[in-house]
Amino acid sequence: MQFNPCKAVTLPRPNQKEREVYTVEEAQKLLEILDCEKGDDFKYAVFFKLAMYSAARRGELLGAEFSDFDFENGLWEIKRSSSWQKGKGMVAGSPKTKSSERCIKLPQHIIDMMLAFREYQNAEKAKIGSQWVEHDRLFTTWCGRPMYPDAPTKFFKRLCKKSGLKFVGIHSWRHFAATCMVFAGNDVRTVSGVLGHSVPSTTMNLYLHSFQKAQAIATGAIATALESGRTVSGEKRESA
Questions:
Q1: What is the pLDDT of residues 126-160, one digit of tens each?
Q2: Which residues, at least 6 apart from 191, have a Cβ–Cβ distance to it below 8 Å?
Q3: What is the model's pLDDT at position 129?
Q4: Are 203 and 192 in contact (CB under 8 A)?
Q5: What whole-number distance in Å separates Cα of residue 145 and Cα of residue 118?
Q6: Is 146 helix (H, G, I), strand (E, B) or coil?
Q7: Domain boundary assignment for the chain
Q8: Which of 174, 175, 167, 121 lies closest to 144, judged by CA?
Q9: Rounded distance, CA 102 to CA 71, Å?
Q10: Quick one: pLDDT at residue 214?
Q11: Could you name the CATH architecture of 24-166?
């Protein structure tokens, strides 16, 4: 039997294209715009604010239920993902990996927004009456059925066109959150845990450039210490 030596060759992984990430200024602009959304668009404001502050995947956001939230302690337990399947429609299942089942701490103003959104949804349910399909889902259609994956994307495209904000995509806010955590000095295991990656190496591969940049900034502290005339302990060095 002939042996093909090419089968024993491990091809190098292609260089991953650097992800386009929103700036902090762009994120703040979006928050200001979302604060003005009312009526049926209120649910999309909740969707994107929750995406920005949690770094959750789209499917995890669509699968979120009010019972998953500990409003008293400001926690969101991510334990399902919702996706569209041909012939079945919207189907809920386990998150992407076992590590994706995680708990996210949310700021108080996001919790307050969630409580207001629950009241809004209950009011809508009362208006629709028997046509409402009972679900505990946060994000639904007009009659309570689970929201389709393309709905937030369509809303975001319209919002970007109207406001002049560039459109990158829904998952860009997950990458934005990850980048913020990296530059805040969080280690790769912590960032990996928040993102729900199965292994830290996945996080490192995806955000290698951000980690390298953060490390470069950190080493600048060495030069600052050496050039400021202070010792490592922080005491002022006496001049000769």
A1: 999 999 998 899 999 999 999 999 999 999 999 99
A2: 178, 181, 182, 203, 207
A3: 92
A4: yes
A5: 15
A6: strand
A7: 24-166, 177-226
A8: 121
A9: 16
A10: 73
A11: Orthogonal Bundle (1.10)
